[in-house]
Design brief:
single chain, about 450 residues, alpha/beta, Nucleotidyltransferase, domain 5, DNA polymerase, domain 1, 3 domains, six-stranded mixed beta sheet, two-stranded parallel sheet, 20 helices, about 10% strand, disordered N terminus
Length: about 450
């Protein structure tokens, strides 16, 4: 299927390669010549190297599949016809749950190019070639991912779920992310799939081919095996995690956080991109506002051109033109690393955006004002951060899942003028930490810690 942002995969068939050659012709990204990006081209070259390495490792022994009723055995089913797809999706619906993942390339198009779809139940595993299908044939997959009656199991599945939500224009419901679930049972967050599989199933996965040319054909046996293992063990992982979560009465928390995290993973949040571009610099509020308007403009240009936003306008030159408050298109050529094509096509619009941002009401700038911590505030916030962290660790919940220090600081500094709970009262965070913290701050609780079996505990 060739969708927006998709191109036919590059064919690299070899006479001695027995791997199914999932056909299709050669096509390149023509826009790379118009919007040259050293970072993008470097990543493509790196993918090509990894791809060749994968084809050169065909003699390596395959990893033995773990023998377990929840782990599908044998080679994955390679699906590239509508009949095969329909049959497998009927099986998925009969099972009522499935593991889901995709392999994609995200650095060359606005919408990531989906190159492979992986599905697994407890008994069967399939790799679907999206380039083999036209029109709406793959909708049966996207509909299943967004079907609330089916349980979906993913690992760090934000971008994978986004693909289904984009095609169906519906939110995905009834999804569990095993990376998030791991954070509720004593593992750090985020943890890789390999670390989670090893922790809960005592199996070490082979190093794989995460960064490779997934849009090339044929894919090697080792690439297909790596892609298969991305979903093969997820049904077992969730089964074991679920048992632990049930014993701790945290299953509802893991499900709630999975759905909330996946729901918001595709949101365009200008403020977060502005903070990233600002790199922690103490910029004036007006510069931050100009930067925000440029981030919004960059996003709209990238969408229209089907390019990643940072290819249209990288963070560093965008920050520089915001600081200089560039007033003419000609000044853009003075900015180091400013893309020439962007300057040619959109220079006048960029200048107009900067001029308009300079005239925005001053109240707009105040959203960027970061509360300053006095020395006393910093000491107390650090102490409170340590207390919350130790409380969370002793409970076996990853602190990073709960909040960041900056979030704690903003809440603490606002308490004198706008007292409010640290977390929403109906959230799992309030139930897990918030209620205890309020009681602690009121002087009704004390923090006691012990040490047992190599880690902190609450006596």
């Amino acid at each position: 299927m060739i969708e927006r942002g998709h191109c036919a995969p590059k064919s690299r068939a070899r006479e001695d390669d027995p791997t199914p050659q999932w056909r299709y012709g050669t096509s390149e990204f023509a826009h790379l010549a118009l919007y040259p990006s050293s970072s993008m081209n470097f990543r493509r070259r790196k993918r090509a190297i990894r791809h060749e390495e994968a084809h050169g490792a065909e003699d390596s022994p395959a990893q033995k599949v773990m023998d377990h009723p929840a782990v599908p055995q044998g080679e994955p089913e390679l699906i590239d016809t509508p009949a095969q797809l329909e049959a497998f999706m009927n099986h998925v619906r009969t099972e009522g749950s499935f593991a889901f993942d995709t392999e994609f390339i995200g650095e060359e198009t606005f919408i990531p190019l989906i190159c492979l779809i992986q599905l697994a139940t407890r008994s069967r595993l399939a790799l679907i070639d999206p380039f083999a299908f036209e029109g709406t044939t793959l909708n049966v997959v996207w509909e299943a991912v967004c079907d609330p009656t089916l349980l979906k199991i993913v690992h760090a599945g934000g971008q994978d779920i986004n693909a289904a939500q984009r095609y169906t224009n519906r939110p995905a419901r009834n999804v569990i992310d095993t990376q998030i679930a791991a954070g509720f049972i004593g593992m750090p967050w985020p943890s890789s799939l390999g670390n989670v599989v090893h922790a809960v199933a005592e199996l070490r996965l082979n190093k794989g081919h995460t960064f490779t040319e997934w849009d090339s054909r044929p894919l090697s046996k080792s690439q297909l095996a790596y892609a298969a293992d991305d979903v093969r063990y997820l049904p077992l992982v969730w089964q074991l995690q679920q048992e632990r979560l049930d014993s701790l009465q945290r299953k509802a928390w893991a499900i709630s956080e999975s759905e909330e995290s996946l729901r918001t993973s595709d949101e365009f949040l200008p403020e977060s991109q502005v903070r990233r571009a600002a790199r922690g610099m103490g910029l004036r509020p007006r510069v931050m506002t100009i930067l925000r308007e440029l981030v919004i403009l960059r996003y709209s240009i990238a969408e229209a051109k089907n390019l990643p936003p940072r290819t249209v306008l990288p963070d560093s030159p965008m920050l520089e033109i915001a600081r200089r408050k560039v007033a003419t298109p000609e000044e853009l050529s003075e900015i180091r690393a400013f893309p020439r094509q962007t300057a040619t096509e959109f220079g006048a619009e960029i200048v107009r955006t900067i001029a308009a941002a300079r005239e925005l009401p001053i109240d707009r700038d105040r959203v960027w004002t970061v509360p300053e911590e006095s020395a006393e505030d910093r000491t107390r916030i650090d102490a409170l951060w340590s207390i919350i962290s130790m409380r969370a660790i002793s409970m076996g919940i990853a602190t990073a899942l709960i909040l960041t220090r900056s979030e704690l600081s903003r809440w603490y500094l606002a308490r004198t003028t706008a007292p409010a709970p640290l977390f929403p009262l109906d959230s799992w965070r309030h139930e897990a930490i918030g209620k205890w913290l309020e009681s602690f701050l009121d002087g009704n609780e004390i923090l006691k810690l012990g040490w047992k079996d190599g880690g902190p505990i609450v006596p």
